[in-house]
């Protein structure tokens, strides 16, 4: 699917978002809202813009990550360090439904943009604030990045092999989890506003978003004093669920359902394990997990990845290869569900980008516009606020806009 064919307005059409902040957490939340149809106006510093424009691999002067993170957005280059720039931002916010920011707590207040002041002119404003430690508490003023949130939230301790230094999962998962929690908060606040007419603050801390998905980590400690430890590719307390080596790679096998386990054992030629009474439930399988993993690993080790996939698919056992970017790009299922879209950038080249999640049956999201150049929409946005061409030219001459 070519992204240019996505012309549906989306379920959030008519919603105006002002995005402040930079890099990942705040911008990903605004990107998600933009994918679903909201009008997102991104405020960037005139010099250099959002640093994400230059992160990781660069093509024609701009990061290809930027092409994903900033699609469906308009860019206004505005110097928020200057009082006049702050005044223009307040004009924008006065007409917005949602303000998204991921500065350190106190930054908005220093600019005279505390929520009480903003809400005095826009009572329905919803303010999403994403920060390292939240807007309250003893750590609120500490600088925080997603990786620190992953550590404090309990995730980083579990990602790795037993006895070795923990590793990161490979992407900025702490930032993204905070973004998605922020979007949930915005949608809940919009529902409340529909009934009351009043907005509110959505306060998301990076470590709290990570902690919220840590399953039974805390209750197990509370009830049993058990500290969950890293277990490599296994899923502790649930068996069998692990990664296994093949002749030419690895696969993940999830055979932890009672009936699935029996089908798995038959498929690998171990009907004796399938019929053992002590392995009929997860409790017994956990007690014998080393034996089970050994049997599965011996079987997979004698076969290729494709042979393992074919055999376990036939037995209706959940199994999957460990995908690389190449595997994703070549997978027909991704393309059948429009999860790989072709987007033409402002620089003129085409690049494949992730599709829209979630998928709505009646009002699906889409990519309506590519990521903007720095300040590309400054004049248009200011005209929407009522500024004349002469006023815009004067602002540009003073370096307040670009």
From TrEMBL:
One Pfam family of this chain: CoA_transf_3
Keywords (A to Z) from UniProt: Transferase
Keyword Nucleotide-binding on entry: no
Protein known as: CaiB/BaiF CoA transferase family protein
Zinc keyword on record: no
Top-level taxon in the UniProt lineage: Bacteria
Source species: Hydrogenophaga bisanensis
Gene Ontology molecular function, alphabetical: transferase activity
């Amino acid at each position: 699917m070519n992204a240019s064919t996505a012309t549906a307005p989306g379920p959030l059409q008519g919603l105006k978002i002002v995005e402040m902040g930079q890099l990942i957490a705040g911008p990903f939340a605004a990107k998600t809202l933009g994918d679903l149809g909201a009008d997102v106006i991104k405020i960037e510093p005139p010099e250099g813009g959002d640093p994400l424009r230059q992160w990781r691999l660069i093509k024609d002067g701009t990061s290809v990550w930027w092409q994903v993170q900033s699609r469906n957005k308009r860019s206004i280059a505005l110097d928020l360090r200057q009082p006049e720039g702050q005044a223009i931002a307040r004009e924008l916010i006065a007409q917005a439904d949602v303000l998204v920011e991921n500065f350190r707590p106190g930054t908005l207040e220093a600019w005279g943009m505390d929520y009480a002041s903003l809400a005095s002119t826009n009572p329905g404003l919803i303010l999403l604030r994403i920060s390292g430690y939240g807007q309250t508490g003893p750590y609120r003023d500490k600088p925080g990045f997603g990786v620190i949130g992953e550590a404090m939230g309990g995730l980083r301790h579990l990602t790795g092999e037993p006895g070795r230094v923990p590793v990161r999962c490979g992407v900025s998962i702490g930032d993204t989890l905070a973004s998605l929690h922020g979007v949930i908060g915005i949608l809940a606040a919009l529902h409340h506003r529909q009934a009351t007419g009043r907005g509110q603050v959505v306060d998301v801390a990076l470590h709290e978003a990570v902690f919220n998905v840590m399953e039974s980590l805390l209750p197990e400690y509370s009830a049993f004093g058990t500290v969950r430890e890293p277990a490599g590719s296994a899923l502790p307390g649930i068996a069998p669920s692990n990664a296994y080596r093949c002749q030419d790679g690895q696969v993940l096998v999830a055979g932890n359902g009672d009936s699935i386990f029996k089908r798995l054992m038959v498929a690998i030629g171990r009907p004796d394990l399938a019929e053992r009474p002590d392995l009929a439930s997860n409790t017994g399988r956990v007690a014998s997990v080393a034996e089970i993993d050994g049997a599965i690993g011996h079987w997979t080790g004698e076969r290729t990845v494709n042979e393992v996939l074919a055999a376990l698919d036939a037995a209706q056992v959940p199994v999957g290869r460990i995908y690389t970017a190449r595997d994703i790009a070549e997978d027909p299922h991704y393309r059948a569900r429009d999860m790989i879209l072709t987007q033409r950038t402002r620089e003129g080249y085409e690049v494949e980008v992730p599709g829209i999640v979630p998928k709505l049956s009646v009002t699906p999201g889409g990519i309506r516009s590519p990521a903007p150049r720095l300040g590309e929409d400054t004049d248009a946005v200011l005209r929407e606020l009522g500024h004349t061409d002469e006023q815009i030219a004067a602002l540009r001459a003073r370096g307040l806009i670009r």
